[in-house]
Every structure is written in C-alpha cells, then in structure tokens.
Amino acid sequence: MMRPALLVLLIAMLPCTGSAADLRGHGGPVRGLSVTADGLMAVSGSFDTTAILWSLQTGSAQQVLRFHAGSVNAAIFLPGSTASAPRFATAGDDGRIALWEGGATAPSRVFEGHSGPVVALAVSADGSRLGSAAWDGSARVWPLDGQGAPSVLEGHQGNVNGIGFLASGEIATIGYDGTLRVWPADGPARVTTFETPLNALAVLGESRLAVGGGDGRLRIVSAADGSVEAESAVAPTPISAIAVSGDGQTVAVSGLRGAVQVFGGRSLEPLRTLVGPGMPVWSMAFVPGTADLLTGGNDHVVRRWDTRTGAPLGQGLLVSEADPLAAYGDDPGAEVFRACVACHTLQPGEGTRAGPSLHGVMGRRIATLPGYDYSPAFAGHDIVWTKKTIARLFEVGPHALTPGTKMPEQTITRPESRQALVDFLARVTAPKD
C-alpha cells in the first residue's frame, strides 16, 4: 500500500491545467468516467489500478484512490453526489465493487460476489440500486442500502459487457454472445440476438437503448420489443464506449481508432467528429448543464471537448502520437495486430501496457515474463507460446483456451488472418543477436 505522505506528494505533482480541460495523472488507459450532476467533479478509473477524483473547475486531482487488485474498469457517481460530498462506486478486474464516501481513503462498503472482472456499472433512477456487468457471465443488482442480497441475472453465454436501468424499472444487459436482454421485475428476460458481439450500452430516454457492436455499428433499439429504430456504421473496428447527453438529444460513440462520432439522439443524424490522438477511447461522459464531453483513452489522459463545435478544450490535443506500427508498412500481420497494440508492445524498451510485452514471446512459457503481474488463474496454465498455440488462442478465444485470463475476449475468424498475425509476431518479436 502507498504511504499517505507519498500519496499526498503524488497528488500535488499532478498537473493543474488553467483551462480545466485536460486531466493528466493516470499511468494507464482510462477505462471508466463519470461526472457529478452539478458538473463540478469527475471520477475516472484506469488500467493502472487507481481511481482519481477530479475537480473540473481547476483541472486538478483531488484524491487518488487505490483499492482494486487490477484494472479499474468502471466508475460512477451515486445520486446526491456534490463537489463537497462526492459518493461514487468503482469496479475492477478483481470482481469487487467499492463504494466511496467523499474524502475517505478506503471504501465505505465493498460488494463481492462476481467471479470475473466487473466491466460496467449503472444506477437506478431512484438511486436505490446499483447494477454491475461482469465477465463471469452474469449481471447483478445490489441494494445500495446494503439490506438484502443482490439479484443475480444469468442467461448470457460469456462476457456481460453492459448494463442499464430503464425508467420502467426493467434492466437491460448486453453480452459478447450478441444478445440484448431486458429483464422485468419478475419472469424471464426478453432476448434479442444480433449477429455481432455487443460491447457498449447506454439508456436513451425512457424506453430506448443505444447499443454498440463489435461490427462497428451503433443501433438504437426499442427496449419494448428489440426492434432497431435507427442504425449507423460508425467505424471498421468495434465500438468501445457510448455516452448520452442528459437531455437525450446527443449520442457520442467511440471506437478503437480513437475518433469520437457525435450523433443526434433521435434518428442518429451525424453531427460531427472529434479527432484526437488516434488512440483507442475506452470511456466517455457528458458534463451536465453543458455540451461538453469527457473522453478517456489509451494515452492515459481525460480530455474535454465541445460537442457543438467539435473543438478540444485542452492544450495540444491534436498532436498525434507516432503510429507504433508505422515501421511495418502495410504488412498484413501488422494490420491484424492493430487490435492488440492497445495492450501489448513488441520491442524491448517500449515497456508494458495493460498486457505484457511480446518481445521474445515465441518459445516463452505462459506467464513467465519477469516483472509482469499475471493473474493466478492465467499463470496456472501449461502452455508454451508458438505460432500454433497463439493461432489457437485467437481461433477459440482467450477465455476458452486460458480460463481466468484478464485478456479481452476476441477471436480472429479467418485462418489467413491468424496466420498473418503469427508470422508477423515471430518475425518482429524475435530477440536480435
């Protein structure tokens, strides 16, 4: 655990931007974002295992919180939060959900029960319940007063990636199995199946849902019958996050290529594109009372944008970072690897990201790279990485080949693409004599 004096020093060293726009302080990709109803505070969660409470007036970190044993994938303010008395929840790879009261350095309460990473949180309209979606195949609904056991929603085949509360009190969940499930207070869920994994979910008005797929398409879906009311092709890569403005008139959608598309919330008419550093955007939140949008991504920074103009409100937002795969030209294996570059580096000296460096991976036994903190379940497998085993990993999926992994679930369906990837990795990660 970090000593209090050192923690205070680190908070003091976090930059304070006069524009109150860029929020810099995380040491890893920003996975979760939420803003208080008064628009004065934000909370973010990161791959670096921390949550940070921010002042949006000064652009400074108010508190750095360490509790989760792994990535903090979701963060959400609870009803009644204000700048002077923030209340929020965080959830992480460790399967735990922590409730925080303003100013405390430890959670006031911890919800445990999930057996896999918790990746999304939602709060009911009346503020009495907290919903969680996890990679253990379930969603749970927790009474925030701590009275009684959580309700467990089971039915998805694989990762549950999103959860939301409807005005009716029903609960919507989405999963890697391509299903949208709407759960009534009692009785079975209404199930709608799409021909793509579903990655992101937001409630849009009283009975409509914004759903983002692995096919890069955004769909507005009726919660009543599962019909698609509007649809738009956003990107050639999977959608990673969706945010809806407080009035429901604007929807922001992000993907792995880094640009954020802004649409009208009724018929998905394109409004504008927010062009950042070209790196994956994992989390977004609108600032209530404004047209401003916060985004958090792979560059470790929380950025602020004016969605009316598409203009960034911070400094240096449009200075693109170097393409880490530029040196490999149009190598087909490098193009396949673009889905992996968010988490893995290839060369010595490039350090580690959310996942271990792949330098020297061929012939390396699983979970043996010095200095990387592997999950116990992952380290328990008996695999040596070769072209054959890596191809198999992406043929059946990480969660089938290596149960217990924290690696995002993804498969490569085309054999020629898997072959291009493993040929590329064998060539570029080999140690140089």
From TrEMBL:
A molecular-function term among this protein's GO annotations: electron transfer activity
Positions of WD repeats: 23-64, 111-142, 153-193, 274-315
Signal peptide interval: 1-20
Keywords, in A-Z order: Electron transport, Heme, Iron, Metal-binding, Signal, Transport, WD repeat
Ranges of residues in domain Cytochrome c: 328-429
One matching Pfam family: Cytochrom_C
Keyword Signal: yes
Matching InterPro entries: Cyt_c-like_dom, Cyt_c-like_dom_sf, Cyt_c_1A/1B, WD40/YVTN_repeat-like_dom_sf, WD40_repeat_dom_sf, WD40_rpt
Ligase is among the record's keywords: no
Domain of life: Bacteria
SMART domains per record: WD40
PANTHER family per record: TRANSCRIPTION INITIATION FACTOR TFIID (PTHR19879), TRANSCRIPTION INITIATION FACTOR TFIID SUBUNIT 5 (PTHR19879:SF9)
Protein name: Cytochrome c domain-containing protein
Organism: Aureimonas glaciei
